[in-house]
Structure formats: C-alpha cells, structure tokens
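User: Please predict structures.

Assistant: First:
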Amino acid sequence: MAEANWYVVHTYSGYENKVKANIEKTIENRKLQDQILEVAVPMQDMVEVKNGAKKQVSKKMFPGYVLVHMIMNDDTWYVVRNTRGVTGFVGPGSKPVPLTEEEMRPLGIRGPEMVIDFEVGDSVSVTSGAWQDTIGVIKSINQGKQTVTINVDMFGRETPVELNFTEIKKIEF
C-alpha cells in the first residue's frame, strides 16, 4: 500500500473551512477514510489590540490554502481536485508535491509519533550537529517537539542544550 503524505491544496480565499467541510463530507460519502486521512486549515493564535483592548483571536496561517493528509492515487486526486472551491494542488503542472517532515514541523502538525529508548537521567552521546561526540545527561524530554534537553560541560560549567531525538543515542554501560 502507498504511503500517506501531506499535500497543499489551493482554494478560493475565504473558502478554506468550506473546502475542508466539503472534502470531509465526500470522504464520508465515498468511504475514503482509509485513503484521505485528515484535512487541516492551520490556525495561529494571535493577540489583536483594537480600541486599546487586547483580544485573543485565531487567524489562518495560510489564507487560501488547505492541507490534506492522503494517499495519492487517481481517486483521491480526483475527489480533492473536483471539490467546490478548490483551484488545484500546489506543485508543478498537475503533479502534486508532498510536504516534507521538516516543512510540517513548524505548522504544529506532527508526523508519526517517535518511539524513544531513553528517559530522564540517561547518559547519551550526540551523533550529529555542533555538539557531535559530546556526552551529556538527559534533563528533560519534550515528546511534542521531539527534543531532549541535556547538560553539557562548557568552559567548566553545566550548560543546557536542546537536541532533536535523531541527534542522540543512548550510551549503554
């Protein structure tokens, strides 16, 4: 079976939520839940000041765009492309280009949950980046951001450093 990826769909401005609802309704009607997994309109919380009063509001991060997590095939392409309000997929010509994990991370939409084999207090070795070959002790784990904070010795002082899960490996004694 093919792999599901996130794709960007261009819509008429202001129609993002309507397009999302229409795609979700079509998924339900055509029983495509196993092929089109999720439809998202990324939102960002902001503070607006109007007439001297602060107000918390949610704004669309990308007006005119909707994200769709789906397995790309002729059926799913046709369903999404022919949804009312959709002008097309983002990508060259008629070939949609999936977003990478790195592009998805800042949007707050995570990829598959990573299983880790270390915990707070474990000694780890840094395998890449500026701290490569450094050894440190895990002080905290942030599962949401997929990072750990370790203390490293810098100029005779313990200094906290945040690293991705992929940049470290557990030291077995």
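Second:
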Amino acid sequence: MKRYECLSYCLFTTSLGIMGIMWNTEGVVRLQLPEKDPKATRKNLLLHSRVRAEEVSKDPQIGKVIQKIQTHLAGKSQDLQDISLDLSSVTPFQNRVYLKTRLIPPGHTKTYGEIARAIGSPQASRAVGRALGQNPFGLLVPCHRVVAANGKPGGFSAFGGLSTKEKMLHLEGCPLGKSLE
C-alpha cells in the first residue's frame, strides 16, 4: 500500500446533499456520499485517512471532477470512467470488483452474481457485496448500480441506505431491475 505525505480534500454541494472528495497526485482516494450534515460528511471522509489531509478550496483538476459529479447528480448523466482513482489502498479482489463495476453505464444495473462471474469468481457474489459495501469511491465506482439477483435493490451502506440508492438510480433514469443482460 502506498503512503502519501499529504492528501487534499474538499466538500461540495450536489442535489443529494454535501459530498466530500479526497485526492492525491494519483487520483481520487475517496468520494464521500452525503451524510446527515456537512460535519458528518467531513468526519467520515477523513475517518479512513491515515495521513495528513489538507482542506483545499480550489483546485482546477478536481474542480472538473466535481463539476461532472454535480452535473451527473442533477440528472444529466456523465461518463465518470475517465476520472482517475488511486486504487493503491484496496485489495486485489476489491480492485477487480471496482474496475468491473465502473463499466456499468448510467441507467443500467448488474447483479452481484453477474459481477462475480465477470471477474472470474462465480461463487463470490457475497464477497462482491462486501467489497462494494467498503467502496471508498461512491459514485465513481457505481455500487448503487449493483442489485440483488431477484431484482430488488440489495444493500447500500451509504447514509440513507436503500432510499439513497433508489434516488441515485432514479436520477440516472434507471428503474430497479433494468439489467444489461
């Protein structure tokens, strides 16, 4: 696991609420979905940081990322796959899950089992669920687009739980159960 001397972060407003983003020279390290209030969002964003993090008010590169996220959450789907992620803090299994999940386009879903099969671990649908439950990249690794085999939403560990997951899918024009298969 890489260690960085300093990470940068900021909070920003979206249609879902106040979000937080943390980054370094490699890319986004963490994207925190909204919590009950901005203080809780900041706390959870910084909770997993093992190094010093500096709040930054303006950064041209991350400003473009934030704009894409805000536009996406305003109901105008954006391709977020080109946003660089620093995956150095995730396990090899999580890395495979996250990279495959990033390929699900807005407006579509896949099941935990479909992701497991796609990464070559067909019996690992529960492990896929656990990996997505630990997803540090929020919307950038669109775990909200992964649903249970029965077409139901499955789980969602962000504040607001399934209600937040359903709002995110709705913003993308995706009724639950609209799979790519």
